[in-house]
Amino acid sequence: MEISTIGIDLSKTTFHLIGLSPRGDIVLRKKLSRKQLLTYTAPASRC
Question: What is the domain partition of the chain in residue ranges?
Fold first, then answer.
């Protein structure tokens, strides 16, 4: 799964993360807390 673009919908307590492939297809969709978002995105490669 190759992610070229990451979109983050910011909220007060939860964040919605969406990853797009180079073709524009949604390949990732997650709902995360603030702590989970930091843990999940820290090791991610640069998009």
Answer: 5-41
d(CA 44, CA 27): 15
Pair 4, 26: CB distance under 8 Å:
no
Instruction: State the number of CA atoms in the 13 A half-sphere of 5 facing the CB.
Output: 8
Tens of pLDDT, residue by residue over 1-47, are 788 899 999 888 899 999 999 999 999 999 999 899 888 888 877 76
Please answer whether residues 30 and 17 qualify as being in contact, where contact means their C-beta atoms are separated by less than 8 angstroms.
yes
DSSP 3-state of 5: strand
Task: Identify the CA nearest to 27 among candidates 17, 15, 41.
Answer: 17
Give the single-character DSSP code of 12.
S
